[in-house]
Each structure stands twice: as C-alpha cells, then as structure tokens.
Amino acid sequence: MENMQYYNGKEIAFLKIAGESPMSARWLNDSNAIFMKLAKKYGAAMFQLEHRYFGQSRPVTDTKTENLKYCTIAQAIEDLATFIRAKNKEKKFNKPRWVTFGGSYAGSLSAWLRSVHPELTVGAHSSSAPLELELDFYGYAMVVEKVLNDTSKECYNRVSKGFQTMQEMLLREEGRREINEKFKSILLVLLNSCRFIYFRYFRAYCSPVFSK
C-alpha cells in the first residue's frame, strides 16, 4: 500500500509497519497522524507493509500447524528488507532515505530491521516496543495488581479470588468446560492436558501475582 501525495522527489520514504493485525488504509490517509504529518513536512513517499499471516499476506494458502514455521520474526524482518529493495527498484530510487515506523510489536520490527539491515534505512521510529523478550513475562500482571490494589482493595480481592477460582477450575475437565461455556472459548475444551493449560496459559499470571 502506498500514498505519494506528499512526495517531492527527494527520495525520502516512510514505511509504516503493520503488526499483529491487518494493515489499514487509514494509516496512509489520516492527516492528523504523526506519520502523515512528518511525511508532509519532509516530502516523503508513504508505504505500508502487512505482516505475513496477519491479514491477506500469506506465504502459503493455509495456516496449518506445519505452515506456521513460515511465521517468524526473522522472516518478518526479511519481508521488510525485500519490500524496501523492491520499492527502490520500482520507484527508481538511487540514494533513498528510508525511515520505518511501528508501535508495539511493529515497533520492535522497526528497531530490529534497523539493526539487522542498517544499509537499508537511515532511521527507525519505534513506539512502545518490547525489545527485551521474556518467555515468562509476569511483570505486566504485577503492574495490573498494583493498580487494582491502589484503586480499590475490594476490586483487588474480587479479581484475586476470581483468578484463584479459575486456576483451580483449569485443573479439572469439568471446570475447563464450564469456563469454556462462560467465556465462549473453544480452546479450553480442545486441550486435554490440564498441565499444559495451566503451565502454558495461566501459571505466569496467577502464581507471581496472587500467591501472597
């Protein structure tokens, strides 16, 4: 996706990276967005690239488990690099100055692309980007715990009790089915291993926060 309305011919190009959702035309058409304001200020060509599997961009026709091996961070970074090279050729850029933009996961990709392929960009805008990845990231739940506790002790106690109840229910098949019915989820019923459910989805949030 592209928008050349502000382009002044000086080979400045802005790339908006779509993250874990389909790309949206509004990012290239919202004149109030900082992305477009900067493009107007510097006369930049504007582009957007959709992340593979999050939308219509897929390297294969289906999302079978075996095909998810084509959905990695390294591959996403190379998609961005390939896109930039292709646009350089298509637009006949000789000395292009690319700046990438992204927020959250897309912000991480923006920074990582700059690190992996410094020859392709002159800058990267990385907003609220998690760069230090952690497998067992319970820190976010601890922040939520503090906010709840500081705001309302009663609210905190209710949420704490709710999590403890759900934790106990997940260890029983009938409990998982009940949670499935209440939350309209199909995941919990399909998983037969209570140990997998607990350790994969719940332990990181329940144990560190509500075990006091």
Automatic annotation (TrEMBL):
Naturally occurring in which organism (per UniProt): Gnathostoma spinigerum
Cited InterPro entries: AB_hydrolase_fold, Peptidase_S28
Family to which this protein belongs: Belongs to the peptidase S28 family.
GO MF annotation list: peptidase activity
Keywords assigned: Glycoprotein, Hydrolase, Protease, Signal
Pfam families reported in the protein's UniProt record: Peptidase_S28
One GO term (biological process): proteolysis
Chain ranges passing through the membrane: none
Protein name: Serine carboxypeptidase S28
